[in-house]
Structure formats: structure tokens, C-alpha cells
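User: These chains co-purify. Model them together.
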Amino acid sequence: MGEHREQGYTPRQRAVLERALELLVAGGEKAVTTAGVARAANCSKESLYRWFGDRDGLLAAMIAHQASKVRTFADDGEPMDRVHFRAHLVAFARDLLDVLSGEVSLALNRLAIGQASREESRLGRLLVAQGRRRIDEGAIALLEAGRRNRHIAYDDADDAYRTLYGLVVRDLHVRMLLGESGARRHEKFAAMAEGAVERFFALHGVREKERADTA
Amino acid sequence: MGEHREQGYTPRQRAVLERALELLVAGGEKAVTTAGVARAANCSKESLYRWFGDRDGLLAAMIAHQASKVRTFADDGEPMDRVHFRAHLVAFARDLLDVLSGEVSLALNRLAIGQASREESRLGRLLVAQGRRRIDEGAIALLEAGRRNRHIAYDDADDAYRTLYGLVVRDLHVRMLLGESGARRHEKFAAMAEGAVERFFALHGVREKERADTA
DNA sequence: ACAGAACCGTACCGTACGGTACGGATAGAG
DNA sequence: CTCTATCCGTACCGTACGGTACGGTTCTGT
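Assistant: Joint model of the four components:
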């Protein structure tokens, strides 16, 4: 068969998932009906069921498909001066805010949260595992690099990362999930990222003289 | 009419809302059917529609009903020493974690988030306005009292509060909403509250000598 | 005691959706 | 050219739910 699938799904199937995501963003979970997706994507319901099993399989496929678009920090082991490390942190904070405030991200998180009550939250675990986990690991790698270069200090990397996350996101994610329009002030994200990193250094930063002492 | 309504709803109606909340906690939004609520509460669907208008009205009433059970810090204007202020902060942090991790709270937040896509997120705004807002105001009053007594310092009370919130909650709320079972480690909340307040003082605390200087 | 309102339980209606089946079109394999 | 597999479009089925109607019962105010 000549179908060249890049990520587990054929191009045709990915196109269908894209249309399904558009429906989800526009109208929430209830807008993602099998008939609606088939009509929007110009495919038959029969094909949907052959490709994704059932409606839940389709929803899971939408999450898996979207999760295959996350970039992350790669630790190259090279030394990094304080200015660059700080810039990396600010960039991470800004990226995080951008990702969390994205329409598709919000729609998928709403979907997974809405399903969390029943069926032991399959979609929630899928979303965390495929989306969030990779972001977390990239950020922790960044923190480890910062500690190795004596820019910051902490005992528990995971704990430090969660503190950074809290300082950056605060209650913004939930407010956006709840639909509070004022929360998505995209133009304020840069200042928010700066402030968060500033506070993070106040908690975990190593002063230059101390850095020399412990080096 | 002899019906003594305490909070906008008669006792009978509140009992019905309680049963509806149980259904919501047990099975999510889809479990809250008009027939199901009527059966569980031993009332007729006709009464449900007379009391709450339609299904959305019932959901809104559930939120309003639940929101009428929030205690908050009341600022009495009296001086407060540092130990007591710190204890108040830790108690607030612990209360916040307890509230957010409560089954009913999680279920209602999931409900409001699930509806946030369509109908301009009525329930979301209702939940924020009736539930969260009061918690926020109580906490900000507490912070103001702490600043008045020179225990902490900040420029923007709202900004300082959001920092505190982020340090306390981090990404815990969203993880719980997604159904991550490991997130609801109830027994760790005390330590988390302590740590968060510790960090908050590191950012906004006023040292005793500085306190004397500026007094 | 009586009238009227509120209420319960059940039955009923229309609709929308998940899932299946089928006929016809298309395209690649031999 | 023919056979076969995939696919589209539509029609179809069963169910579940939101909302309404109605008869019978209990409660309330006078």
C-alpha cells in the first residue's frame, strides 16, 4: 500500500482530525458528532468507525494528533552564561503561556476535563502524558542545566519546576478554561513571563559571589 | 406562604439541588438528566421546570447553591502580630487546597469548564463570580491587613495575591480537574501550604529591623 | 369544610445522536 | 479488462434525553 503515514495516521486521516479539531474549537464537545465530522471532512461515518473505532477513539485520536506538535528545550550539555540561562527561562515561560492560551489547547483541555468524571479519565491521562509531560521534561532539563552552571540552586528539581510553573501560570489556566475573556490578554504575556522569572530568581537564584565560593 | 427560604431557595429545592450535586459528582454532567434528578430527589420533572426554568437553569442553581457555603477571612481592623498573620496565611492556603480538591468543587468546575465553549460561558462566569471572587476578596483583605501591620510589602495587592495563589496551587488544580489521582494527596496539603507561605515571605516579607525603620 | 395551588408519578412527543448497513463510485493489482 | 478493496453518501435503527401534559394526591389559606 502506497500510503505514507508519518505519525501513525495517514494524511487523509490527519486531515479529518484537523476538521474535527476545528469543530471542537468552534462548538465544544457536543459539536463533535460523528455525522458532523463526516460532513465537515467529506468522509463517511463508516470510515470514521473503521479508522478510530468509535467516538471515544476519535476524541483520543484528536488529542494524540495535536500532541505531535510540541517543541521543547534540548540540553546540549554546553556551558551557559547567566544572561542566556535567564533568557531561556523567560522564553520557556512565554512559550508556556502561549501554548496554554491557544484555542486548540484550551478546547482539548476542556474536552479531557469534561470527560474526567467518567471512564476513569482516559483522555485526561492521555493529554497529560502526551502533551504536558514533554513540556515538563524540557523545562526540568533547562533547570538542571541552570543548576549545573550555578545560576540557581534547589534540592528537588521537580519541586523547583512546579514553583516556576505556579509563578508563571498562577490561576490563569483555569480562568481561561472557564472562558473568562479578560484572562487571555496575549499582549501581557511577555511582562508576566519576565515577572515570574524575576520572582523565581529571588527564590532560587545564586548570587555571583556565592557562585564563586561554591565553584 | 409559610415557606421560609434562607438563600433564595426553599428547603425542598435545596434538598433537590443536593441530590443533583450527588449525581454530578458520581457521574459528571451527562449523569445530571432531568429524569434522573427527579427520580433521585423524589420530585416531578414538572416541578424541576417550574423551579429552575430548564436544564441550564438547574445547573446554574446547583452552582449558586454550592457557592453559598464559603467561609472567608473577615478583617476586624485589629493589630495582628507576625506569628498570627503567618498562621492566617497558612490556614488560608490549606483551606484553598481543601476547597479546590473537594469532590463537589471539582465536579462543578468540570461542569462549568465543559460548558465554557458554547453559550459565552455563562456557568463559568457564574462560578467565578459566586465562588472564587469571595475567596479572592477574603485573601486580599488578609494581605492588606498584613501590609498594614508591616509584615509584608507589595505595590499591587491583586498581583501579590495572584503570586500567593500560584505558589500554593501551582498546577495542582488543573491536574485534579483532569482526574490525575495522584494529585489529590490530601495528607500533603499541610506541608504544601507551609512551603508556599515560606516562599511568599521570601518574596514579600518585611524583616523586623526594616519594619521598625519604616514604622 | 372547602377551594385552589402545589406537587408527584407516569406517560407522551419530538429530536438528536451513536452506530450499522447498503448501493454506487473510484482506483490500484494482476 | 477484471477483480477487489476502499471509500463516499445516504438511509436506517434503537435509544436516550429535554420538555410538556395530565390525572390523582397532599398541603394551605380562609
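Chain A touches chain B through 42 residues (CB under 8 Å).
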